[in-house]
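User: For a reading group we're discussing how well predicted structures match intuition. Take DUF4873 domain-containing protein. Before you show the prediction, I'll give you the sequence so everyone sees exactly what went in.
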Amino acid sequence: MSEHDEDGYAGEAVLVIDGTEIATTVELRGYFQPIDGYYRWYGRVATNEQVSAAAGGKKTAVEIRAGEYSAKGELSDPDPWDRYRIMGTSTPPFHVPTSLEELNELNA
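Assistant: Thanks. Here is the predicted 3D structure of DUF4873 domain-containing protein, as structure tokens, for the group to look at:
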């Protein structure tokens, strides 16, 4: 049994950390949580020396831009491969189908 259906994005993104824009690659997923009514998104940022230097190995507020979409989120501690986890609540930095027709078009 699946807990929830996930949406996602993998590709190029720009992270804004303390006013500095850093081009990187991300893999993101997200889902609507019906219990509290929020959309939760999360993922990983590819290993990137500029991200590591700006975040300093700790939780950091971030803006993420992926094409025409953007969102505010948080970087957390890096994993052993120096990939930071990124997460946020509410509008995600990627497209999410908003109608059954659109969902059917994506799945066709």
